[in-house]
Predict the 3D structure of the following.
Amino acid sequence: MSTQIQYIPRMVPEINDYFGTEDMSFSPTESFMNALPRRISVQPLESKTKPFSKGDIKILLLENINHQAVISFREQGYQVESYMDALPESVLLEKIRDVHAIGIRSKTVLSSSVLQHAKNLMVIGCYCIGTNQVDLEYAANMGVAVFNSPFSNSRSVAELALANIISLARQLPDKSLQLRGGNWNNSSRHCYEVRGKTVGIIGYGHIGSQLSILAEAMGMSVIYYDILNIMPIGKAKQVPTLDELLRESDFVTLHVPETPDTKNLISSPQIAAMKKGSYILNTSRGSVLETKAVVDGLKSGKLFGAALDVFPNEPRFNRSNVFNDDLNKWTSELINLPNVILTPHIGGATMEAQSVTGLEVSEAIANFITQGSSLESVNFPEVSLRQTNFDDNALRILFVHRNIPGVLRKVNDILSRHNIEKQYSDSNGDIAYVITDISDVTQSDVHAIYNELDKTSERITVRLIY
Ligand SMILES: NC(=O)c1ccc[n+]([C@@H]2O[C@H](COP(=O)([O-])OP(=O)(O)OC[C@H]3O[C@@H](n4cnc5c(N)ncnc54)[C@H](O)[C@@H]3O)[C@@H](O)[C@H]2O)c1
Ligand SMILES: O=C(O)CC[C@@H](O)C(=O)O
């Protein structure tokens, strides 16, 4: 008989309640954080235009997004509703209906069937690296820009991968578990140094290349496989085929995104190609590694250990008794195997990474709302216009449209009674985006311009900032 779990969304406590909670750490993190070079400014660009009352803009933040984001949005005057967890779909459908911006991490799936309920949505912020949880194309076709934080947690993931490499080599999880059970076993059987061993990195992007540096510093040899030709760091060597990497590595570690090409990238044939007594690590996405093949590899003795931070199915909420066979059918087999490290998707879960991510994505969201800037969006044409000498009679027009010939001419015909101060347009596949600043606009011009642009058959969205 299945049990129905009643879910009551847990709101994030008010900001002052954060201090003194277990999540808060002041030392040594605080001094480190203050010394971090800041690529981003804490305050978003001050808009000289008057878009609307920010108090009318509703921002929904899910999955316990860092309190810096909540503080920053509230200080700017936005309405913010913030929840500890991902919402069950029925609640999400209700909540997403009238929000203008939503911030998520990896557990909230924004599929087309969810997004079609979002009537006011302008922008999605993924407070993480991965964006596979969002239907990016559908969002772009709605005129909704999606932003992520492309490298703020790369170091955290790379450090976890290195820690797992050493832990697997020394059988740390099992030794610790045995001693907790009263069992003293200081045998060196199958315990190794990592120095001189080879780590094979699949996906030499932000995380893979960080790990490369850390692993070399430990005296390891690094080889990597990537679909792109990427310049090696240090003495690392790119290998031409996945097969070569699998054959030569003592530790194989996955750092590719979830794409149709990476689904089950490592499965039984790839594990068969690995060295006997090697180890596999996955901190990328659960879909990239066929976990049943890992279970079989561990059982047969082909693999000496595995460290998995991500799984094909992951719980949406932090709860007890959820990591079981109902979630993934091989779970009980996996948890009973020796030398296996299982972590609940914590690669990027550090105070440092969450704080930087919180600021970076919030800044992108705010700049899209107040300026229309889509720089570094993952699904949108990248357009941004500098604002200079804006006076009370200036108007900024943000027009997202189908990417077909003749649209810019139509737009400029509509605007022809005004001086175009600045204009910038870009396209990305079927979508194009043009930002135009015009001057000498009266209140009735604003309405006329809006109505005319709104009627154009190629329009996806039109937004005016004045
Ligand atoms: N466990 C966590 O908490 C955590 C945290 C951050 C990121 N991630 C995951 O890690 C992934 C990688 O992050 P990143 O910042 O290094 O990404 P990245 O985009 O910087 O690097 C990914 C690399 O993979 C390569 N690649 C893509 N498809 C490939 C294929 N089929 N074969 C070989 N190489 C391929 C790309 O060319 C790129 O160099 C993210 O997409 C995300 O899913 C997990
Ligand atoms: O914070 C998360 O939920 C996901 C982190 C990680 O998987 C990422 O893609 O950045």
Remarks:
- The longest helix spans residues 351-371.
- Confidence is low (pLDDT under 50) at residues 1-6, 15-51.
